[in-house]
From TrEMBL:
Residue runs in coiled coils: none
Domain of life: Bacteria
The protein's name: IS3 family transposase
Residue ranges of domain HTH-like in the record: 29-83
UniProt cross-references to InterPro entries, sorted A to Z: HTH-like_dom, Transposase_IS3/IS150/IS904
Lineage, highest ranks first: Bacteria, Pseudomonadati, Pseudomonadota, Betaproteobacteria, Burkholderiales
Chain segments annotated as transmembrane: none
């Protein structure tokens, strides 16, 4: 497989067994916090609201990073049902 991609076997093994970087660890922590906030909102919070919650909690992240992580993790905001017009 290494010949197919044009990389050395030692380089592939180095990449395969490399420990997680600090950025990847931060992403993993963010995904856990995102899941927690998303479940607490009954699945209605999207990236703008979650990023505000996380910034208030002390996390440093942008809305674009958060949206990318949510998309990778399969977390989507659910629209709240609106009541029909005229219903009380």
């Amino acid at each position: 497989m290494c010949c197919l991609f044009g990389v050395s076997t030692s380089g592939f093994c180095d990449w395969l067994y490399r420990p997680m970087s600090q950025h990847e660890r931060g992403n993993a922590q963010l995904v856990q916090a995102i899941k927690h906030r998303h479940e607490a909102s009954d699945g209605t919070y999207g990236s703008p609201r979650i990023v505000r919650d996380l910034m208030d909690a002390g996390f440093a992240c942008s809305e674009n990073r958060l949206a990318r992580l949510m998309k990778i993790a399969g977390i989507k905001a659910r629209h709240q049902r609106r009541r029909p017009p005229g219903a009380a």
